[in-house]
Sequence to fold (294 residues):
Amino acid sequence: MPTKRQKNVWRSEINDIIRGACGGFLFGIPLLYTMEVWWIGSLAKPQLMIMAIALMFIVVYFLNQIEGFRERRYTWLADQAAMDTVEAIAIGLACSTFVLLLLRELTPETSLKESLGKIIFESVPFAIGVALANQLLGDTRNSYAEGEATEAKNTTNNKGDELQASFADLGATLIGAIVIAFNIAPTDEITMLAAAASPPWELAMIVTSLLISYGIVFQAGFSDQQKRKQQKGIFQRPSSETIMSYLVSLLAGAFMLWFFQKLTFSDPWTMWLDHTLMLGLPATIGGAAGRLAI
Fold:
């Protein structure tokens, strides 16, 4: 019995971390594509870094008092909110470090001071997104579980709506991808990142985009997660829906790059691939948020 209880505790903790990380990606991904933040972080002095961490702690602490990223909240306990704040900041630091490494903004040649500055300043929106995880899209896993059987029956009986549900998901993915990636597409950051990307890093970008998209929609516990897993349709299985939505996000990204004249039809296909994959990460995250919104 204690072993089973311990497993449940660890499972709950892992789910909370995934939920917080997904909230961080939803809130913090646009700033990770902003070179001005890279420059500010690379030039920041230690005193400014300490001040940024202190301000981040204060803001995230008060956000954790309101909602936070955990499934169960104990907002009246100051020490619990403080512990959640430390964990939220740690999640933000880890996620921003990972994405900066993925984007090749952190390399073995980058100095320790520059790396710390970039990580700390990029982690601020991530940590805020972690603390806002439940507020961003809500966590209705438990409240929905009670009606799971009834919903499954209703979904099965509505086979005529399967095609409509599939098109609704694709449309929501398209809208969400445009909302998040539209402000990133015309910037020079995409060109810079694409020039530095090699095939192994592009493959890592694809895998990361798919994993984050799957985590946001099917693992983080946002919105009606159980309903989405039961939904029937052409691409309604979690794996096929994630892949199809990623392809739609890539098409949306390619169109936005063409629209802003970052790509032309005379450019080689490799250039289209590099640029589209770089924009594909924020577009996919936006597409995942769009699917949760419907």
Q: What stands out?
A: Residues 139-157 have pLDDT under 50 and may be disordered.
